[in-house]
Amino acid sequence: MSFIRAAEHDREAPVTSLTGEIRSSSWSGTTDAGTMEGVLQPLVERVPGISALSVTGPVASRPWSRVFHGQGSAYPTPVAIKLCLDQSTGQASPELARAYFRALTSVHEAMDGHSLFAGVRPYALFEDLGLVVAEWVNGPTLSRLITGSSPMNARLAVRKAGAWLARLHRSTNHSFRPLNTDEMLAQLEVAMTGFRRPPSASIFGRALDALRQTAPSVTGTPIVWTFVHGDFKPDNMLVSSGKLTGIDMDLRYPGPGVLDAAQFLNHLALLLRTPRGIRRLSYAAEISASFRRGYEQDGGLPLDYPQLAWVRLHNAVRLLVKHRDWSSGPVGWITGWSLRQLIARSTDILERSHSAAVDAPERPDMPDESAAAGRVAYLEDVLTFLAEDEDTWLSPDADRLVFDALRPQAERKD
């Protein structure tokens, strides 16, 4: 059995070989905490300096993974033990575990030492078992922060998420390439094969028509390509010790960075239509705009609007096709309804921007920063963001940002 234990993040992890009677046991999505502890305990005991490990859970169960909680002297902190599963068989997946371990390592290195951002520290990979052991991060999800805090704090948190994503994208040797709409449309057709369309199936036809008609207009401009997170959304961001920490990433495949942005913004839109998020719905445009500011202004990467609008509609259709896999019961009904609303709205935006045929299409999800309300929102973002870092707050750059934010109001007064 292959076992990798993570060393210090700036050194190569040592690899050793361990054997046991594990292959003959049933190792799948039915694995419980007792079985997990019984398998891991003799393994960790073979490593010098490692001893006890107590396992509870699973604390989270999905078709593609089970997550357990571990505690004891085996690791310097409590740990999350993730069993990666092949969805088609329900069995442990060494390939997915290996990819997840590498992704955690890459993100931890990219965020290491940052004052506001962090990545989960990986501890060990038990590849043959499909297991990854990593630091357990305590803290609310970004979803909870967005729905449970003031609109200003929600905007600031989402802005930080945009900056976190841009930092990740910049760390993976990003390049600039055109969006491959033909391939994405082909993938969408495959995903919809055999899907029993609901009574409101007309939204699918209209959305697909809009995607096909506007595809040529969004393929010419090169955009950021990187190793994509794979499931970047508010539920996969934790707030702990004043830092924003990303979890459950993939980073296996190169692709347009706008895929991650579209996934986040669509899940944000769905969050604001849940019972706990509905009171923030009237601020949806400002919160969404803050994410783009974080990615572009703080993160330093462009997020082209036409491509983002196209990919958001593409992503929304895929989510509706697959949403029964990750959202069931009454929540699933609300999610399905919200996705139909999102698809209809995204289709309207894409059709309007295409028919306008102008060089600078409107940005319906971003407030007009030349208007007083938009400028006030922008100024609040700037002041709050800069106030978190005393050195930045006192810098000449801070004065320039504040002046730029206030200048339109002063000009109107004159």
Count of runs of 4 or more consecutive helical residues: 13
The ordered string of helix (H) and strand (E) elements is: EEHEEEHEEEHHEHHEEEEHHHHHHH
The CATH level-2 architecture of the largest domain is identified as Alpha-Beta Complex
Strand content: 5-15%
Number of domains: 3
What CATH calls the topology of the largest domain is: Aminoglycoside 3'-phosphotransferase, Chain: A, domain 2
Major sheet: arrangement of strands: 2-1-7-8-5-4-3
What do these coordinates show?
The protein folds into 3 domains: 2-135, Phosphorylase Kinase, domain 1, CATH 3.30.200; 142-356, Alpha-Beta Complex (Aminoglycoside 3'-phosphotransferase, Chain: A, domain 2); 372-413. Mean pLDDT is 79; it is low at 7-25, 357-371, 388-399 and 408-414. It starts with a strand and ends with a helix. It has helices at residues 33-45, 94-111, 142-148, 151-170, 181-192, 202-218, 258-271, 284-298, 305-326, 329-356, 372-387, 390-393, 396-413; strands at 2-5, 15-17, 54-62, 65-71, 79-84, 117-119, 122-126, 131-135, 175-177, 223-227, 237-240, 243-246, 254-256. The chain contains 13 helices and 13 strands. The chain has 414 residues and is α+β, with helices and mostly antiparallel strands. The strands form 3 sheets. A 7-stranded antiparallel sheet has the order 2-1-7-8-5-4-3, sandwiched between helices. It has a 3-stranded mixed sheet with strand order 6-12-11. It has a 3-stranded antiparallel sheet with strand order 9-10-13, with helices on one face. Strand 11 (237-240) and strand 12 form a beta hairpin.
